[in-house]
Recover the amino acids of this structure.
């Protein structure tokens, strides 16, 4: 659509506020679909000619009545703002209103900065107007945009203005001042002044939010002036020590999203600070989740492992790191194998539990694990990690078995004998269904075929011995006892079902029906005119099966004892390992 036609449509709707807002929204949608860009020029020309007052129009927007259209109007206003003829007082009042309607700080500062930079007096007028407001905290977030709009010939004035703001009692004003210091376009001589203001303010600043702004400004400053990195590194050693959550959040955001190119030693130092988080710091953990993915992608495995171990030690769980968990399982198997082996070898119950959490969160799929043999230099370690695999991954028998088989391949003769024993009992005896198929597939593929055939042979002999005595009447329970058992079992199950069903959400959204006979259900569809249509729906069968560990039925006490031993035993002959 041409510029003139767009202006005509806007003018036609300008008499009624709601119609004009609706027209702006419609034109914005059309423009996005057609990739034309005339709406901005049409609105700015009409506003500057005095035919519509766009600022007052937007200032009256109510987010609750506009719904999703509010953010479309906001986007249009952001595009148009730099080209509008208006005073800073009206624009700031409009921006504060929009911020309050959105319920959060808006990313419109860049547009306001461009608006202020159009005329030399606007930045100074803006700063003066903001500082004169009784609701200073509402207007203060636009201070940085105002100061950054100072022209290249007024950098000294911008620095002086920022220095004055650092002495302000309002913490939001000071935070904006620190933020600005890290982004001012200064030369090498003025950079020394900026560094003096940042480093000098750090010792006296006590507000956590302001300290977080100092940190971000300092790192942005280092990105612009790399020659200061050695001073910054020394500064960080004391500034970041025992940091509050606000500072740690800034650290996690900066290192996770690489908004600043950090030297390797600075990056490692900042990553280590994230060990001091709490599981309740969800925002920080979300950033760490993303950071771990980036570190793994960039080959920084040592940092990944170090950071993981430190945050798990303070109570963070793998379900909180869902992005990293997914990437680790699908794209970084070598790192996964190293982590699992290292943590099993440590014997630390928190780390071993972390392995269990990670692998149990894979929607029931069997994970192919291989031990990192570079960490397992002797048979004591080889047997030790195999025991840990059984103890912590017992409910995932194929995963545990695959891990042990990878150790078996290069293990010593003595270690192999121990591994063969634990593969048979408790694993194979507990899961004769799954593992029989798994070992048979290994035989077919030629993977440790001799071992797998021996294990299958033992299982066959075990079942043969059971079959020989299974028909002895002396070992069979009387039929009456069996019948009594199942009646009681069914009665207990029904009682448990009725007890747990009370107050369930499902009963609130679904109608409960009792089927007396047949294999279909009948229901009625109510039409708008009151007529009912009878419908019949065939019932479909579905089933799910899982293999219960057999030893948990035959000898639960012994199984529980051995699994506890495997989970919590320490390394034998540690002095020689």
């Amino acid at each position: 659509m041409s510029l003139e036609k767009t202006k005509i449509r806007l003018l036609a709707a300008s008499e009624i506020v709601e119609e004009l807002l609706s027209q702006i929204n419609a034109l914005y949608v059309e423009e996005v679909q057609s990739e034309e860009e005339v709406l901005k020029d049409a609105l700015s020309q009409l506003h500057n000619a005095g035919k519509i007052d766009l600022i007052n129009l937007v200032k009256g927007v109510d987010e609750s009545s506009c719904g999703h259209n509010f953010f479309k109007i906001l986007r249009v206003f952001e595009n148009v703002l730099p080209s509008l003829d208006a005073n800073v007082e009206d624009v700031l009042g409009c921006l504060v209103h929009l911020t309050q309607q959105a319920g959060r700080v808006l990313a419109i500062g860049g547009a306001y900065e461009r608006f202020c930079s159009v005329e030399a007096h606007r930045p100074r007028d803006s700063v003066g107007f903001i500082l004169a407001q009784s609701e200073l905290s509402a207007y203060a977030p636009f201070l940085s945009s105002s100061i950054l709009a100072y022209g290249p010939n007024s950098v000294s004035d911008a620095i002086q203005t920022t220095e004055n703001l650092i002495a302000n009692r309002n913490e939001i004003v000071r935070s904006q001042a620190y933020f600005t210091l890290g982004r001012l376009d200064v030369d090498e001589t003025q950079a020394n002044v900026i560094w003096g203001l940042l480093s000098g303010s750090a010792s006296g600043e006590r507000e956590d939010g302001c300290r977080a702004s100092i940190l971000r400004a300092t790192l942005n400053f280092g990105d612009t002036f790399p020659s200061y990195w050695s001073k910054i590194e020394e500064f960080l050693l004391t500034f970041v020590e025992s940091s509050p959550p606000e500072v740690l959040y800034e650290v996690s955001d900066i290192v996770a999203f690489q908004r600043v190119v950090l030297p390797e030693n600075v990056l490692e130092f900042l990553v280590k600070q994230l060990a001091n988080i709490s599981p309740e710091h969800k925002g920080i953990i979300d950033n760490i989740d993303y950071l771990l993915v980036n570190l793994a992608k960039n080959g920084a495995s040592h940092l990944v492992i170090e950071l993981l171990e430190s945050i798990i030690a303070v109570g963070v769980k793998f379900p909180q790191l869902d992005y990293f968990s997914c990437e680790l399982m699908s794209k970084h198997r070598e790192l996964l194998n190293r982590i699992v082996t290292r943590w099993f070898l440590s014997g630390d119950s928190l780390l071993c539990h972390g392995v269990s959490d990670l692998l149990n969160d894979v929607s029931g799929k069997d994970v192919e694990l291989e031990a990192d043999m570079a960490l397992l230099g002797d048979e004591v370690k080889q047997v030790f990690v195999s025991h840990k695999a059984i103890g912590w991954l017992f409910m995932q028998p194929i995963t545990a078995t695959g891990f042990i088989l990878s150790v078996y391949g290069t293990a010593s003769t003595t270690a192999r004998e121990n591994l063969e024993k634990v593969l048979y009992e408790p694993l194979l005896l507990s899961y004769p269904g799954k593992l029989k198929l798994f070992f048979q597939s290994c035989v077919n593929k030629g993977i440790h075929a001799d071992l797998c055939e021996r294990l299958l042979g033992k299982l066959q002999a075990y079942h043969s011995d059971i079959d020989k005595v299974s028909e002895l009447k002396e070992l069979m329970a009387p039929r009456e006892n069996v019948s009594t058992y199942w009646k009681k079992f069914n009665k207990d199950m029904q009682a448990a079902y009725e007890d747990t069903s009370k107050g369930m959400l499902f009963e609130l959204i679904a109608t409960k029906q009792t089927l007396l006979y047949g294999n279909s259900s009948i229901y009625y569809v109510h039409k708008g005119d009151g007529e009912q249509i009878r419908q019949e729906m065939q019932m479909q069968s579905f089933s799910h099966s899982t293999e219960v560990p057999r030893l948990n039925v035959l000898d639960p006490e012994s199984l529980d004892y051995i699994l506890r031993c495997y989970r919590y035993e320490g390394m034998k002959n540690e002095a020689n390992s």
Summary: The radius of gyration is 35 Å. The longest strand covers residues 520-526.
